[in-house]
From TrEMBL:
Belongs to the inositol monophosphatase superfamily. One of its GO terms (molecular function) is metal ion binding. Pfam families: Inositol_P. InterPro entries: Inositol_monoP_metal-BS, Inositol_monoP_superfamily, Inositol_monophosphatase-like. This is Histidinol phosphate phosphatase.
């Protein structure tokens, strides 16, 4: 696939990801802490004009650069394409965004459907000025290499999740049992937690109820930093995954977590 409108070079792809994230960041910061109104979608999750404007702009930019690619966005759904599909979460952590907390981000991923792999992923934190970009070649934070921690024992691990509200009662019981075996547990952060893991600041992240646009970008960021990310059955994440996700600094920690989650 040498056609520039189908398969970009590695350097060209990184540049385009940054262009997308820059555009999203500009819109997000324009509306952040501005008293922006929000509506509730059918699933009762909130959505703001920032979510909608960011996705519209990213779709426009992708359509101009890669007109044959598909796009799956949180706000607009799936537009099918050829081979490659972009997964977009314009504001991951909309509740944080609405309440003035800076722990919201934009998630962007490019999936090669033919090879069934996530070619590249980005976590951008507009209010914090932090940006992780991951590929098979590695992960960077603000263009510097990012690496996971060396913790291998659950008792030494710092474990995070965004909120107990995202778990079913049975899933929460599993997470509660797991997290109480860790060194300590913390709550809140949405996609920022995975950036922290990729940079070695925590060791495990376990969540449920995620959608494909929530986790596709996380895969290359975590794996490029030397970590692992799977579903609760230990299987690789795909667009068909059930939304229960566990990310770990290494296989040893993953296996210890799966013993509780499976």
């Amino acid at each position: 696939m040498s056609d520039a409108q189908s398969s970009p070079s590695a350097s060209g792809l990184a540049t385009f990801f940054n262009d997308l994230a820059d555009a999203a960041r500009t819109v997000a910061l324009t509306h952040f802490r501005s008293g922006v109104d929000f509506e509730r979608k059918q699933d009762l999750t909130p959505v703001t004009i920032a979510d909608q404007t960011i996705e519209q702009e990213l779709r426009r930019m992708i359509g101009m650069r890669f007109p044959r690619h598909g796009i799956c966005g949180e706000e607009t759904g799936l537009t099918p394409g050829e081979r490659f599909t972009w997964y977009l979460d314009p504001i991951d952590g909309t509740k944080s965004f609405i309440s003035g907390m800076p722990l919201f981000g934009t998630l962007i991923a490019l999936v090669d459907e033919e090879e069934d792999r996530v070619a590249a992923g980005m976590i951008d934190m507009p209010a914090l000025g932090e940006r992780w970009y991951g590929t098979a070649e590695g992960t960077t934070l603000n263009e510097r290499p990012a690496r996971v921690s060396r913790a291998t024992r659950l008792e030494q691990a710092q474990i995070y999740t965004s909120s107990p509200d995202f778990f079913s009662p049975d899933d929460w019981a599993r997470y509660d049992a797991l997290s109480r075996k860790a060194m300590f547990r913390r709550f809140g952060g949405d996609c920022y937690l995975y950036g922290l893991l990729a940079s070695g600041h925590c060791d495990l992240v376990v969540e449920a109820s995620l959608k494909s646009f929530d986790f596709m970008a996380l895969v290359p960021v975590i794996e490029g930093a030397g970590g692992v990310i799977r579903d609760w059955d230990g299987k690789a994440l795909t667009r068909h995954s059930d939304g229960r996700v566990v990310a770990a600094a290494n296989e040893a920690l993953l296996e210890q977590a799966l013993a509780f989650l499976g």
